[in-house]
């Protein structure tokens, strides 16, 4: 057929020549340049084997294959074909194959050398999904090992230079796209990270306004299928004038997706997730409404649960979305946020390898001989926390051994198109004769939840303590055409397709019925939880606090398996959305051989005493309340020191003598900073060792002279200087001792009755004579009448006035005219 001119047509010859001469080529092109459909057929002349064109999404792979065949007069499945999940159109002589990147990774399990493949095209690399990064690194390593394999990386990314440096013998070719005028608009209202009533009101208003401006299709970018469904309902309720409302997202069947991608005879409103950002052309669109939101998969290292989180899109994604409006003609893009917000908007999205769960990736790489994930040729390295989490998960599943080598069970898990966790569930089901049941359960757990929890009446009585059993029954009803109103039909259809695929991989004679608790306890034991009394809160293996969601059917069970969860902002407990409950008897019946008895010495912070603690556990989870008995001093010794060191600050506040000593010490090192390092962690530990010896209660420790013990932990010469130069007490001329207060780092003071000071001519000095003592001179009523650090001046200038006042008020006391020769008086001192 005759095809229209596209910008890439002028570059095809140069690109083909570069591919023939080099191992790798990076091709950058703006949307609409034609790279996905025009270039792949030309690449067949560069090699003799197969050419694979990888797409992030199956709808893009299928659409591109059909378009290529249409433009070249080919038949799908002969000259060019496609391979996607649930569908394949490839013949024995097919050399050009469009496939999803996930399917290529599955091919690597049985064919790590990629026999017969001479060239791989990675399209839409700017999406930076985990599969793309894994394939890019693996193919580069194959090239380094001498495999004559060529790569073409096609992307709209701005990182072409960095990408070319990562690859070997690489050239960068930039293809400009066909540019149509684009009217880019912003609203005056800020973007909110909530899809509430106000959000839907704004979207619907924007659609009605757009309908007045264009006769073409209106493309609305929404964060997820739930938001798509709710906008659709509101548009229908509001009686949108004469447009069909259609959906475009990954949960649709291929036939439904292809229908949207065909030219429509009447204008439409297309409600889409970010699948329409790239890869495919949605014909007829000249108006885009961008909500600026997307749902991004995020894994939390503390628990290992992954969830879709609502987030702002990057500026790059916003640019891609806007380009949909002007791909075939002039268009309009309305952004539902202010132009000022773009100053703080991220330039590009975070690569999936730095936020996603890595268990399946690590298992595949281990199978391919990569035992150290950090040694792999990552374009961007994943964080250590996610690598560690993946390793822990694979060890718990027995998919790898302690040396990081893949086990026979791990190789078995690679057979399944499932994450290893759910693959383990399916494998156990096969072994127990419950393969069909396990297939249905794994499908439900690996896909989006098809139960609309807002419509599901959580107040209804629970038929069983298992959210998964409820969904298994609902899936069976759906398969037999009896879905209740709170089942999302399209999501359920996707789950059913997965279930049928998995059921085809196991014994067809096995039942869809069986002991579900046995499957879950046997394969998901690392997520076992024990409820805290009669509350929704529980403790999970690994000591993580969790809380059952209100929608969960697990209402009373003491134990449960956490199947799905999410970490919410400002909440310490992980919210468990899907769970399966068990009694203690059922737990011991299934996992009794894994029960261990743990014994340790435990400190009760409330009673401030140590106990011997004995508790039965499965893994790290206590399955009952511990038995406590008083601990003997010889058992407590090490733990006591640990507790004392940890609570040193608390000890100092509760022990008056130690607190006063530390105030003296701070005063000392303020003026002698060279000694500050002497009171270090080691000295504090030595003090705690002496204080804790033979004691099992904190109260016993606090009864000791801790100030004396801390001095025993310091060099004796330092302590002598310290006691001499920063004394605890001042001996007055009366012979009485008075406490010196060192609360101020610059001075020290003494409270003393004025009459006790008669005969002291000059002010005593401390710290090698550097610091004079300050005296708060008290009257007979023990209230200060003068504060001075210069006694000579006080006797000469201040005392006559003070004497006059005090003689009148306290005539029975002695007030000599010459205090320098008078005898100091101690009587009348305050009784303590």
In percent, how helical is the residue content? 25-40%
Low-confidence stretches: none
| Biggest beta sheet summary | 8 strands, mixed
Q: Give the overall shape, derived from the CA principal axes.
A: elongated
Count of individual helical segments: 27
Number of strand segments: 32
- Overall average residue pLDDT: 90
Structural class: alpha/beta
How are the elements arranged and paired?
Elements: H1 12-21, E1 24-29, H2 35-43, E2 50-55, H3 58-72, E3 80-84, E4 87-89, E5 96-100, H4 101-110, E6 117-122, H5 130-144, E7 150-155, H6 160-166, E8 170-175, E9 182-186, H7 197-211, E10 217-221, H8 225-237, E11 244-248, H9 254-260, E12 268-272, E13 285-290, E14 293-299, E15 306-312, H10 315-323, E16 331-335, H11 359-367, H12 384-396, H13 408-413, H14 420-431, H15 435-446, H16 467-479, H17 489-503, H18 516-523, E17 528-531, E18 537-540, E19 544-548, E20 559-566, E21 574-582, H19 584-591, E22 595-604, E23 609-618, E24 621-622, E25 627-630, H20 633-646, H21 648-654, H22 656-671, H23 681-692, H24 698-702, H25 706-712, H26 716-725, E26 729-731, E27 737-741, E28 749-753, E29 765-766, E30 771-772, E31 774-778, E32 784-788, H27 791-809
Parallel strand pairs: 1-7, 1-8, 2-5, 2-6, 3-5, 6-7, 9-16, 10-12, 10-13, 11-12, 13-16, 19-21, 28-31
Antiparallel strand pairs: 3-4, 14-15, 17-18, 17-20, 18-19, 20-21, 22-23, 23-24, 23-25, 26-27, 27-28, 29-30, 31-32
């Amino acid at each position: 057929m005759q095809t229209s001119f596209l910008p890439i047509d002028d570059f095809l010859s140069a690109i083909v020549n570069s591919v023939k001469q080099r191992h790798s080529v990076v091709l950058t092109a703006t949307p609409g340049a034609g790279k996905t459909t025009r270039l792949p057929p030309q690449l067949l002349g560069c090699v003799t084997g197969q050419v694979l064109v990888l797409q992030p999404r199956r709808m893009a792979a299928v659409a591109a294959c059909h378009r290529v065949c249409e433009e070249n007069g080919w038949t799908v499945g002969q000259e060019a074909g496609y391979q996607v999940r649930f569908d394949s159109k490839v013949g024995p002589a097919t050399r050009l194959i469009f496939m999803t990147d996930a399917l290529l990774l599955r091919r690597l399990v049985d064919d790590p050398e990629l026999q017969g493949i001479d060239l791989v095209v990675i399209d839409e690399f700017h999406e930076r999904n985990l599969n793309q990064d894994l394939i890019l690194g693996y193919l580069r390593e194959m090239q380094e090992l001498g495999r004559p394999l060529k790569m073409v990386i096609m992307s709209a990314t701005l990182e072409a230079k960095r990408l070319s440096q990562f690859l070997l013998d690489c050239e960068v070719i930039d293809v400009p796209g066909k540019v149509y005028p684009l009217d880019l608009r912003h609203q005056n209202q800020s973007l909110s990270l909530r899809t509430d009533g106000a959000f839907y009101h704004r979207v619907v208003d924007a659609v009605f306004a757009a309908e007045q401006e264009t006769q073409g299709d209106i493309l609305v970018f929404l964060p997820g299928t739930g938001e798509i469904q709710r906008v659709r309902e509101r548009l229908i309720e509001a009686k949108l004038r004469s447009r069909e409302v259609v959906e475009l997202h990954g949960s649709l069947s291929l036939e439904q997706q292809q229908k949207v991608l065909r030219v429509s005879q009447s204008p439409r409103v297309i409600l889409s997730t970010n699948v329409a950002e790239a890869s495919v052309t949605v014909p007829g669109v000249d108006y885009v409404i961008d909500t600026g939101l997307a749902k991004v998969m995020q894994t939390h290292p503390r628990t290992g649960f992954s969830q879709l989180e609502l987030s702002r899109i990057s500026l790059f994604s916003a640019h891609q979305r806007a380009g949909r409006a002007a791909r075939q003609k002039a268009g309009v893009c309305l952004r539902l946020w202010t132009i000022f917000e773009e100053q703080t908007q991220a330039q590009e999205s975070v690569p999936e390898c730095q936020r996603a769960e890595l268990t399946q990736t690590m298992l595949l790489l281990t199978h391919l001989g990569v035992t150290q994930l950090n040694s792999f040729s990552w374009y961007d390295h994943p964080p250590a926390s996610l690598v560690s989490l993946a390793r822990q998960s694979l060890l718990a599943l027995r998919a790898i051994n302690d040396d990081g080598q893949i086990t026979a069970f791990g190789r078995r898990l690679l057979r399944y198109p499932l994450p290893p966790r759910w693959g383990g569930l399916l494998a156990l089901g096969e072994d127990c004769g419950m393969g069909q049941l396990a297939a249905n359960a794994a499908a439900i757990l690996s896909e989006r939840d098809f139960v609309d929890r807002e419509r599901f009446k959580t107040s209804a009585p629970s038929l069983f303590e298992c959210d998964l059993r409820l969904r298994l029954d609902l899936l069976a009803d759906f398969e037999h055409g009896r879905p209740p109103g709170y089942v999302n039909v399209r999501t359920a259809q996707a789950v059913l397709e997965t279930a049928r695929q998995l059921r085809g991989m196991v014994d067809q004679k096995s039942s869809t019925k069986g002991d579900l608790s046995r499957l879950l306890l046997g394969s998901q034991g690392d997520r076992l939880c024990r409820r805290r009394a009669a509350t929704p809160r529980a403790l999970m293996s690994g000591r993580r606090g969790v809380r059952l969601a209100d929608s969960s059917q697990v209402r009373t069970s003491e134990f449960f398996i956490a199947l799905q969860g999410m970490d919410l902002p400002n909440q310490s407990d992980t919210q468990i959305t899907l769970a399966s409950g068990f009694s203690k008897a059922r737990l011991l019946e299934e996992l009794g051989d894994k029960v261990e008895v743990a014994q340790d010495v435990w400190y009760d912070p409330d009673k401030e005493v140590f106990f011997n603690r004995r508790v039965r556990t499965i893994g790290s989870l206590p399955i009952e309340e511990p038995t406590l008995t008083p601990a003997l001093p010889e058992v407590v010794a090490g733990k006591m020191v640990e507790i004392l060191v940890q609570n040193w600050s608390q000890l100092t506040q509760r022990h008056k003598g130690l607190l006063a000593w530390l105030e003296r010490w701070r005063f000392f090192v303020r003026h002698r900073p060279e000694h500050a390092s002497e009171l270090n962690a080691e000295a504090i530990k030595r003090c705690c060792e002496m204080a804790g010896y033979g004691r099992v209660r904190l109260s016993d420790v606090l009864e000791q002279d801790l100030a004396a013990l801390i001095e025993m932990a310091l060099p004796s010469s330092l302590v002598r200087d310290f006691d001499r130069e920063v004394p605890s007490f001042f001996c007055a001329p009366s012979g009485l001792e008075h406490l010196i207060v060192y609360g101020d780092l610059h001075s020290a003071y003494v409270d003393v009755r004025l009459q006790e000071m008669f005969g002291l001519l000059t002010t005593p000095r401390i710290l090698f004579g550097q610091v004079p003592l300050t005296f708060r001179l008290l009257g007979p009523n023990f209230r200060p009448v003068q504060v001075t650090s210069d006694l000579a001046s006080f006797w000469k200038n201040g005392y006559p006035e003070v004497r006059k006042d005090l003689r009148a008020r306290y005539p029975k006391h002695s007030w000599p005219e010459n205090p320098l020769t008078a005898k100091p008086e101690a009587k009348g001192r305050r009784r303590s």
